[in-house]
C-alpha cells in the first residue's frame, strides 16, 4: 500500500523544480566536502570546518525522489536549493566592491576594435552581417575537426 506522499510519476512538476541538479552532482559535492582537499580549502577560505550533513541529506533526498518518487523528498530538495540560491545571492549583493548597473552601457553594441576583429578572424569565430539588414549572419571561416 502506497502512502499519500508517493507519486507514481517522477516527472511531477513543482515550482522551482528547475533548481534541482542531477544526483551525481550532489554525490560529487558530498565527496568533495568529505575529501581532504575540500576540508583544507573550506578551512582556508572560511576559517572553520564545513558541515557536510546538509549536502548528504540533499543527496539522499535526490536519490529517494528519483527512485521512490517521494514528494516530501522533492520538496525538501527544492527547499535546500532555494536556501542555497538565497545564500549565494545574499553574498553577492553584500559585496561592496562592484557597482551594480541599472541599464547597459551606452556603447554596448559598438563595433569591435581592429585588434579584436583580427584576433577573431584568426581563430575563426568572427561573424559579419551582410549589407542587407534582413539577411542571416554569415561565418567568414569555419573549422572542422575530423578524427580518423
From TrEMBL:
Span of the signal peptide: none
InterPro entries, sorted: Pants/Emi1-like (IPR021475)
Lineage: superkingdom: Eukaryota
Compartments reported by the entry: Synaptic cleft
Chief site of localization: other
UniProt cross-references to Pfam families, sorted A to Z: PANTS-like (PF11326)
GO cellular component: synaptic cleft
Transmembrane segment boundaries: none
Membership in a protein family: Belongs to the UPF0545 family.
Name of the molecule in the record: Synaptic plasticity regulator PANTS
Species: Didymodactylos carnosus
Organism taxonomic ancestry: Eukaryota, Metazoa, Spiralia, Gnathifera, Rotifera
Amino acid at each position: 500500500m502506497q502512502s499519500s506522499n508517493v507519486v507514481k510519476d517522477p516527472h511531477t512538476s513543482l515550482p522551482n523544480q528547475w533548481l534541482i541538479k542531477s544526483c551525481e552532482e550532489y554525490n560529487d559535492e558530498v565527496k568533495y566536502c568529505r575529501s581532504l582537499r575540500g576540508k583544507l580549502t573550506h578551512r582556508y577560505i572560511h576559517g572553520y570546518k564545513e558541515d557536510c550533513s546538509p549536502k548528504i541529506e540533499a543527496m539522499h533526498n535526490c536519490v529517494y525522489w528519483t527512485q521512490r518518487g517521494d514528494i516530501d523528498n522533492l520538496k525538501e530538495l527544492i527547499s535546500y536549493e532555494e536556501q542555497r540560491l538565497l545564500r549565494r545571492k545574499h553574498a553577492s549583493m553584500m559585496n561592496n566592491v562592484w557597482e551594480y548597473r541599472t541599464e547597459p552601457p551606452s556603447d554596448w553594441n559598438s563595433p569591435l576594435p581592429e585588434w579584436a576583429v583580427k584576433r577573431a578572424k584568426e581563430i575563426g569565430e568572427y561573424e559579419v552581417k551582410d549589407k542587407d539588414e534582413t539577411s542571416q549572419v554569415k561565418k567568414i571561416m569555419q573549422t572542422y575537426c575530423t578524427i580518423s
